[in-house]
Write a structure and sequence with these properties.
Layout lengths: L1 E4 L4 E5 L8 H15 L4 E7 L2 E6 L13 H15 L5 H11 L2 E8 L7 H8 L3 H10 L2 E6 L6 E4 L14 E4 L3 E5 L2 E4 L4 E3 L2 E5 L20 E6 L17 H7 L2 E2 L2 E2 L3 E6 L5 E3 L19 H10 L8 E5 L4 E4 L3 E10 L7 E4 L4 E3 L3 E11 L33 E3 L26 E6 L15 E3 L7 E5 L15 E2 L4 E3 L7 E3 L6 E2 L3 E5 L4 H5 L6 E6 L2 H22 L5
Parallel strand pairs: 5-13, 25-33
Antiparallel strand pairs: 1-2, 2-4, 3-4, 5-12, 6-7, 6-13, 8-11, 9-10, 9-12, 14-15, 16-19, 16-24, 17-18, 18-23, 19-22, 20-21, 20-23, 25-32, 26-27, 26-33, 27-30, 28-31, 29-30, 29-32
Helix pairs in contact: 1-3
Length: about 575
């Protein structure tokens, strides 16, 4: 077992692959032992294939000794859990896992409209369609990982005869419940999403439901079998957009005879891409649910502090072109991050009922954060008000704002003083050509050091999921071999086969199979959030100890700001 950093706020435990050992049983048993240990500072645990990623808050790690970093201290504590837990060793782990692993049956309608690629698989394998169905439904599978999309299971155990390459061109939409084959694996799409696996059937079993206490139906280590059932009308799939407590919204915002509840705002124009975000959906990665949240968490936190909110209150994230908003109540707002025409930034601004502000285009940077005193009172989904658009989760009905939307504002708890602003030196060093600091990734040694001398440009294909870069292609060392998927995080720099790096961002998937070149440190992620297509970026390697010192310094600066604002906001 090895323990290595995964950026500056996570580490990954990797188990040795031994043909005589059931590694998945070790991973599953050790994951349970770690969760039970309740190690201080740990916020997420993500098992996948032969590894377990442990995400943590460096400020909450306890037991630090003089000169030790949070990473070094937590690494020792994690290793101690492994030593104390005999369930992770050899036959003992297999015995415990075999006795505790659930067996889940998934009914599937194979072929016809439900499995449009069944004929493709049959042709590739030289089998009849009936033989494909018999083999697929006659095997037992194991959940090796959950990721790619919320609740999506990667299942091993596919009969070798059925292995079929993914589609050359992925579909733009694969329906929820689709059962597919991708290479030597099979899986089920829990939500509608793009995908390139060969679809051979459909299930009505809902594998992901944000309204359940345990949203993912399956867990890593579960045993799964598929049962062929006769074709029948599909049960109506509850869309992710319906995962909203409409009654709570109606209680807060009532529109009767043209009268709107006092504390609300109306969207007059949407801007380019305006969403509700907070600091993210912590604790759900094991179910394949991405962190999401504000791309520039520093700016979002400061915006909230300026109007007297808790730092995790929901704000609006504005992208390149801001919205026009009508305020239906008196209050205070603050805009941070990118500067937008129409509103002064980095200071509180009083607004009056009936007032409209058109935020216009960003004059520099890419994303702005608009906080309203009292916060945006949308209903939390899986513990967060953040919008995760790909799954239709959270925010305002799981989507970007539309013209006519009326959103509730919470009750302000503090009074805000007028005519003051904060020292702008507290801001990150935003710019269009930043050098961002990184910690080396697991496969960094397979790419040499030319990437550290390369300037990469941001491409228009970038989004909240990942920043796609263009520069001199990075060549991986010959013989690097295929990789098992493992945990990734916002800031992970992956290198796909074309050699052009992708920096994962707030809406990144929870696991990935591309080589990990590096991880952008937490304090520099805001710099990436403000880059536009055409901007450039360079990388600079630092040690994890330096990264965490910078993290602590940022938190100390925010603490000083918080203390200073206490004199202005009461």
């Amino acid at each position: 077992m090895t323990i290595e950093p995964l950026g500056d706020a996570a580490l990954v435990v990797t188990f040795a692959v031994d043909s005589n050992a059931d590694v998945l049983s070790q991973v599953s048993a050790w994951t349970r032992a770690l969760v039970s240990a309740q190690v201080a500072g740990v916020v997420d645990v993500v098992p996948a294939y032969v590894s377990v990623a442990v995400f943590y808050d460096p400020l909450r790690v306890v037991g630090l000794k003089a000169g030790d970093s949070p990473y070094a201290t937590l690494k020792q504590q994690i290793a101690a859990v492994a030593v104390e837990s005999r369930s992770v060793q050899g036959a003992s782990a297999r015995s415990i896992e075999n006795n505790s692993a659930r067996c889940v049956e998934i009914p599937v309608r194979y072929g016809a409209e439900a499995g449009t690629d069944l004929a493709v698989v049959a042709a590739h394998t030289g089998l009849t369609e009936d033989a494909v169905v018999a083999l697929h439904s006659g095997a037992e599978y194991r959940v090796q990982a959950i990721g790619f999309a919320p609740g999506f299971p990667y299942l091993s155990g596919l009969p070798a005869e059925l292995a079929t390459p993914r589609r050359a061109t992925p579909r733009a939409k694969v329906p929820a419940g689709a059962v597919g084959i991708g290479g030597a694996q099979t899986g089920v799409y829990p939500i509608e999403t793009p995908g390139g696996w060969q679809i051979i059937g459909q299930t009505d079993l809902k594998l992901f439901d944000a309204k359940r206490a345990e949203p993912s139906w399956l867990r890593v280590g579960d045993r799964v079998c598929f049962r062929a059932v006769a074709a029948q009308p599909c049960a109506r799939e509850v869309t992710a957009n319906e995962v909203v407590d409409e009654s709570a919204i109606e209680r807060t915002v009532e529109e009767k005879n043209g009268n709107v509840a006092a504390r609300a705002f109306r969207v007059v124009q949407t801007g380019m891409w305006t969403t509700v975000q907070d600091l993210g959906r912590v604790g759900q990665r094991e179910a394949g649910v991405t962190l999401s949240g504000a791309m520039d968490t520093f700016a979002a936190r400061v915006a909230n502090l300026l109007v007297g909110n808790a730092e995790n209150a929901a704000v609006l994230e504005l992208t390149l072109l801001g919205p026009e908003i009508e305020f239906l109540t008196d209050g205070w707002i603050a805009l941070t991050g990118s500067e937008f025409a129409g509103c002064v930034a980095w200071q509180p601004v009083a607004v009056r009922a009936g007032q409209r502000i058109k935020f216009g285009a960003a004059t520099k940077g890419c994303r702005g954060y608009l906080a309203l005193a009292g916060g945006i009172a949308v209903t939390p989904v899986l513990g967060s008000r953040s919008t995760y658009g790909r799954a239709g989760l959270g925010g305002w009905q799981g989507r970007a704002l539309r013209v006519g939307d009326v959103l509730p504002i919470g009750a302000a708890v503090r009074a805000v003083a007028e005519r003051w602003s904060i020292d702008l030196r507290i801001r990150p060093n935003y710019g269009s050509t930043p050098t961002v600091r990184v910690i080396l990734g697991a496969q960094a040694g397979e790419f040499g050091d030319s990437w550290l001398k390369t300037e990469f440009n941001v491409t228009p294909q970038s989004d909240r999921m990942g920043m796609r870069l263009a520069g001199t292609p990075l060549a991986r060392r010959v013989g690097g071999g295929d990789l098992l998927s493992s945990a990734v995080a916002p800031g992970t720099v992956q290198v796909p086969p074309d050699g052009q790096p992708i920096v994962l961002l707030a809406d990144a998937q929870t696991i990935g199979g591309y080589p990990q070149l590096a991880h952008v440190i937490g304090v520099d992620l805001p710099l990436l959030a403000q880059l536009r297509p055409g901007d450039a970026v360079r990388f600079l390697v630092v040690a994890i100890e330096e990264a965490q010192e910078l993290w602590l310094a940022r938190e100390q600066a925010l603490a000083m700001l918080r203390e200073g604002l206490a004199q202005k906001i009461r």
